[in-house]
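ESCALATION

Customer reports they have been waiting on this structure for their group meeting. Please prioritize. Original submission:
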Amino acid sequence: MQWPHKLVRAATFACLFVLLVVLSTAALMVATEAGEGAGGHWSGERIAVLLVLTLTFSVVACWTVARAYARHVNAPLRMAEDLAAMTAHSGLRLSDPATEELRALAQAANHLLAARDALESDVAERVREARASLEQERSRLAALMADLSQSVVVCNLDGRVLLYNQRAKQALSPGADGSNAELLGLGRSIYRVFDRALIEHALERLQPVAGDEARGDGRQGIGSAQFVTATRAGRLLRAHMSPVLGGDGQPGALVGDLSVTGFVLVLEDVTQTNERHARRDELIQSLIEGGRGPLGSLRAAAEMLSDFSDMAPRQRDRFLGVIRDEAGALSTQFEKAAAAFSNDLRERWLLEEILGVELLAVAARRIGEQRRGEHRPLAVKTENVDDSLWLRVDSFGLLQALRYLALRLQDEYEVRDVRLSLQRHGHLAQLDLYWVGTFMNNEAAMSWLQDPMSIDGESSPLSVVDVIERCNGEIWFQRERVSHRAFFRTMLPAGEAPKDLPRAIIPAADGERPEFYDFDIFRWSAGSHELDDRPLAELSYTVFDTETTGLQPSAGDEIIQIGATRIVNRRLLRHECFDQLIDPRRPLSQQSVKVHGITRDLLAGQPVITVVLPTFHAFCADTVMVGHNAAFDMRFLQLKERQSGVRFDHPVLDTLLLSAVLHPNQSTHRLEAIAERLGVSVFGRHTALGDAMVTGEVFLKMLPLLAEMGITTLRQAREASERTYHARLKY
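Update from on-call: job pushed to the front of the queue and completed.
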């Protein structure tokens, strides 16, 4: 039987039930009137029976209609909503409905979805093959950017950041260690970091220049500009600005005959250089000022001795004493100046921080390499190595010196194995190269240390002593007759772990570009449109979530964790995230701890909400805030605005309300249920950052579905959300 016939039958049954109800009611009325006319022969029991029958028929009729509506009207509507979501996203299938006819329809739809997925998979595979070379170049760019020692930022003409590396984020952060680096991010404005007038002035200085006529290159180019500025952390940066030229037909600002679509900033921290130059200038000035008096006295004494050669011996001795004293004073001044400037002279060498255990591992590998013409390589072992010890040395020169000494021991004394050790002694690091059994005299050892190094025919003008002195250390030869050990001992200043080490490069997920750049932002335009009229696909979003002590913000519950990530150009930037625990200054209920797993011990020593909110507010700047059941989280934020001195007046979108817009016939709009409908993997639930990540994935899945419904702008999304039932909930 076809499903329309079932609907007809259900409607017929419903009509019969309604007819029976009407007849029963009419019979009851007639019986009542007859009973009154006949002197009340109708008993109350009969009337009660008729009433029960009437109510029973009514209930059965309502149940039949509701069941028929749920099975044959509401179920197809839910299937249509699920099918709309599945046509926008691959890998999803319809579940088996309750009725035979809908099951047949679901099977047919699933066959079509499978065929569509197979076709999309084939197309995607071809696209991946075609883009393999491009993705490889992008990965190389990401690795290059991460490893650069310079800070690099690329912006479009509106000042929107479309590329940066980790060095730039550390250099431009308010914290000296790179923490709270909320100022820099994809899609953010560079004018939050640098003064707008300074950037605009540098852009105005980009003037066209002619090509090199000597090489026959008459093409026009554009020069560069430089400026110096200070960061919020007080660091002094020198910025070199170069233009990014657009291709044919690509819009941009015209400089001469060339189109400029953006600019590159290469930043150099010149704080220490500036301080070193200031010390040098002060030193030179002190030498000039301090040397005038002694030089004048020396000159006067010398002139007196020259002009009056017949002066008395006592007077002559007095003038000679003046010359001796003033010469000594000058010598003292120059010695002090040399000592004060010696550290600056040493800093000109390229010293680098390196973990001691890594240095010894490389040294052992280099020393133990097979040499040409050698049948047996030198055996090397490392012993007594302090794993936590850092050094600031010329690592290449130090490795060269260790290898030179070890191989010379092998060549001249037939030493077959050596040992390397590294230990801390106070503020110094003790590096030993030692061996057992074969002794050498002190004169030979000192000669080795002072001779220019020569290894396998490759010579260096530097000696071992030169290299060690360059590293601000000392080296000597020593013997232990009891243990029959001899060693070259090097004492080096112990270093500290560098604070600006680049973070490890985390590979992007399959099909996802590295998150430190997005060249699609070149196509952004400032536009004069209000934010409400901007397309959803062009906006930047901050997806956030909170964990709290309870569910009643107005009753004193507090935020204990804020997690957030950003969406730029329809990409979830997992590396640009905000994750902060907060001390609520109040006890935690056992019920809330069971949900989020955050205990009082984890919150000890964490900042309070009034410290965290200004930083989070800066992280959300120039974006639309997105949350699941966002009204709940926003209420917590708004109650702390006055204390924190910030106001969260950002536009807000709620995935709960958007789900109700997209799927009004679904029975639940919980985050897990929405994620399951849209094929989003759920992970890290009931942590603020984990929930924010899932919400961001869900929101990105919703964008094409909203576009199919004609909801393409922020205004349309907000108005549609406000019309849902869930928008009326208050906290």
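Sent to customer with the following note: Residues 44-88 form the longest helix (45 residues).
Escalation resolved.
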